[in-house]
């Protein structure tokens, strides 16, 4: 009886873990009539439309005139109602196709001078995988390096999704919405690494996994004449379940990149 319960409990832990990874739909497009579509935005054309790929693989084109918000779902609540974020171009060529042909003159500063560099998203690859537990959306950004802060540079006027890299690490997309770069601007870069959380979570997970295996093996072999000890096996699966609940949120922590506009007098303005 205990052995059967332990096996059922262990299967439930594995299913819950799979469901956690399956819930990964990053973007949302909300229309003026109150409806919305979730998926992965793969194309934005200023003053025209947005193209979103649904978890099923279907691609849907939505005219911007009917949209109140199009962007990361996690950031929607941070914006006021009815506010449409700037639309990001997918490449410098798209930026140059804008009716405005002047350049944006940028002064780039950093919270930690000499460590951080400014990048922009020049493309995004999307892959959708399906399983019995649902669809998963995977995105990979391709970045183009602009300069190492502090620096002064120019970019074609237009809307950009910006990113920040720490040292020689890979760039991370900034949590701020797309930026409309035009005229003379000062930008301040910030970066928070959560590598320590990920390492600690992985350590807890591996240690608990070893302890869980030891308990299950002991439960099976400790009393050869009397059969498996269900309580030890249950303890092994329980240890694994608690470890997953504690360590997974830590392992899934992502670094945070920030880009802010700095006012001419040195005071930082709101994120744009």
Fold and architecture overview:
The chain starts with a helix and ends in an 11-residue tail after the last strand. It folds into two domains: about 20-195 and about 255-260, no CATH class; about 195-250. Mean pLDDT is about 75; it is low at about 15-25, about 80-100 and about 265-270. With about 270 residues, the protein is an alpha+beta fold. A five-stranded antiparallel β-sheet has the order 4-3-2-1-5, with no helix packed on it. Strands 9-6-14-15 form a four-stranded mixed β-sheet. Helix content is about 30%, strand content about 40%.
Notable traits:
272 residues; alpha+beta; 2 domains; five-stranded antiparallel sheet; four-stranded mixed sheet; disordered C terminus
The number of helices is 4
Number of domains: 2
- SSE order, as H and E? HEEEEEHEEEEEEEEEHHE
What is the mean pLDDT? 76
Enumerate the strands of the largest sheet in spatial order, edge to edge or round the barrel. 4-3-2-1-5
Describe the biggest sheet?
Answer: 5 strands, antiparallel
Helicity range:
25-40%
Based on helices, strands and strand pairing, what is the structural class?
alpha+beta
Tell me the distance between the termini: 60 Å
Radius of gyration: 24 Å
In one word, what is the shape?
Answer: flat
Task: Please give a quick description of this structure.
By secondary structure, the protein is an alpha+beta fold. Helices cover about 30% and strands about 40% of the residues.
What is this structure's SSE topology?
Layout: H1 2-22, E1 27-31, E2 36-45, E3 49-53, E4 59-63, E5 67-72, H2 92-96, E6 103-110, E7 116-131, E8 134-148, E9 151-156, E10 158-160, E11 162-166, E12 172-173, E13 179-181, E14 184-192, H3 195-221, H4 230-251, E15 256-261
Parallel strand pairs: 6-14
Antiparallel strand pairs: 1-2, 1-5, 2-3, 3-4, 6-9, 7-8, 7-11, 10-13, 11-12, 14-15
Helix pairs in contact: 1-4, 3-4
């Amino acid at each position: 009886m205990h052995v059967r319960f332990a096996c059922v409990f262990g299967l439930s832990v594995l299913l819950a873990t799979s469901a956690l990874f399956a819930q990964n739909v990053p973007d949302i497009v909300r229309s003026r009539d109150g409806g919305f579509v979730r998926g992965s935005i793969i194309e934005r054309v200023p003053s025209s439309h947005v193209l979103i790929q649904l978890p099923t693989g279907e691609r849907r084109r939505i005219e911007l005139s009917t949209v109140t918000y199009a962007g990361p779902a996690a950031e929607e609540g941070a914006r006021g109602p009815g506010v449409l974020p700037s639309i990001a171009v997918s490449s410098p060529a798209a930026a140059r196709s804008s009716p405005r042909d002047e350049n944006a003159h940028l002064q780039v500063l950093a919270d930690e001078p000499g460590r951080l560099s400014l990048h922009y998203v020049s493309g995004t690859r999307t892959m959708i995988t399906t399983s019995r537990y649902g669809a998963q959306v995977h995105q990979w950004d391709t970045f183009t390096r602009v300069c190492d802060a502090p620096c002064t540079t120019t970019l074609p006027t237009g809307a950009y999704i910006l990113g920040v890299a720490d040292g020689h690490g890979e760039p991370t997309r900034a949590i701020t919405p797309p930026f409309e770069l035009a005229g003379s601007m000062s930008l301040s870069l910030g970066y928070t690494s959560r590598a320590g959380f990920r390492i600690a979570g992985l350590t807890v997970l591996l240690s608990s996994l070893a302890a869980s295996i030891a308990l299950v093996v002991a439960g099976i072999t400790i009393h050869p004449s009397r059969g498996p000890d269900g309580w030890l096996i249950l303890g092994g699966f329980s240890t694994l379940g608690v470890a997953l609940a504690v360590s997974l949120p830590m392992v899934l922590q992502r670094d945070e990149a920030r880009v802010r506009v700095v006012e001419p007098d040195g005071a930082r303005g709101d994120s744009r």
